[in-house]
Every structure is written in structure tokens, then in C-alpha cells.
Amino acid sequence: MIKLTSRAKQAVETKNRIYECGVNLIGKYGFDQITVEQIASEAGVSVGTYYYYFESKFELFKEMFKRADEYFLNKIADNLESNIALEQIVEFFEKYADFTYENGIEIVKKIYISNNKMFITENRPMQTILQSIIEKGQSSGEIPKSMSSIELTNMLFLVGRGVIFDWCLRDGNINLKTTMKKVMGIVTKGLN
């Protein structure tokens, strides 16, 4: 394990503080309603320091998705309990619902907007993990090959995002994980 110098630790802490302050402001006001100056002020750093860690306000937004991808790579990819692909898909989306819920309804409402193309950016780790599950299921004959693994991945994320969008519309007044599990259970039954 690499030991960080005190300067490196401070740099990580500064970047995380900027990130957390930015996420909090996005949750309160929305991405388009905040400025780099506000984020820097909230984090107690100069605008120049902000730009040292993030090239733009959009880079902070991309960091949110990068951290989600890292979470799925490190915590989910190799830790699904089932060995059955269709069950793994449902479990994957339960974890997706958990992760979304942990971010909080206000943040999620602010990022589930039509001009947020990060959700459909190709080859993100979160997508490749699901695609791998589908490909294993297709190889074992559990999932038909009538659609490509990419098409199925896109379709399943479309459904999953729809469940989350509905949760947002209802101001979080439904159980996100239970609803996701139920909907994905129905969808995956239609795959075989």
C-alpha cells in the first residue's frame, strides 16, 4: 500500500471538500444555478484552487458519475450474491437503488434532468459491469441472444432510470429498493 505524504493527504482532503461542497450546492440549487465562485467560497478555497482540481463546473458533475462508477467497480462487481444472471441483474439494480437513495432525493432530483447526458455516456464501468452479467447469461443460455448485450444493457438502464425518476416525481414517497426489485423482477422474467 502506498503511503501518502502529508501534502498528498491535504490535496485529497481539499479535492474532497470542494467536491462535497459542490454536491451540496447542486442538491440545494441545481447544477445550472450555481457558479464555480460559489463552490469555491463554500469550500473555503480560492477559485484558482478549484480550477486546480476541476477544469470546469462540469468536471465536478462528471466526478459524481466517476465516483458512482468506482463504487460499482469496487463494491458491487465481484460481490453479487447470486450465480444466476437474471438474479444478478435484479441484485445489481437493487444496489443501484441503494446507491441512489444514499445520495438523497434532492441531489437525485437535480441530476435526473433531460440535458444530463452522463447517464447515456457509453462504456462507463457501471454499464460494462451489467453488460458482463448479461454476456455471461447469454453464454450460459440463460438469456437469449435475440438482442445484443449492449442493447439489453441500455434497455435495463432505461427501465432503472425510469423507476428512479418516478421515485423523484413522488418526492421519495415510495420504497425505491422494493420498487426497483419488483420492476426488474418483472422485466428479467420477460428476458428468458
UniProtKB/TrEMBL annotation:
<dbReference type="InterPro" id="IPR050624">
    <property type="entry name" value="HTH-type_Tx_Regulator"/>
</dbReference>
<dbReference type="Pfam" id="PF00440">
    <property type="entry name" value="TetR_N"/>
</dbReference>
<dbReference type="InterPro" id="IPR009057">
    <property type="entry name" value="Homeodomain-like_sf"/>
</dbReference>
<dbReference type="GO" id="GO:0003677">
    <property type="term" value="F:DNA binding"/>
</dbReference>
<feature type="DNA-binding region" description="H-T-H motif">
    <location>
        <begin position="35"/>
        <end position="54"/>
    </location>
</feature>
<feature type="domain" description="HTH tetR-type">
    <location>
        <begin position="12"/>
        <end position="72"/>
    </location>
</feature>
<dbReference type="InterPro" id="IPR001647">
    <property type="entry name" value="HTH_TetR"/>
</dbReference>
<keyword id="KW-0238">DNA-binding</keyword>
<protein>
    <submittedName>
        <fullName>Transcriptional regulator, TetR family</fullName>
    </submittedName>
</protein>
<dbReference type="InterPro" id="IPR036271">
    <property type="entry name" value="Tet_transcr_reg_TetR-rel_C_sf"/>
</dbReference>
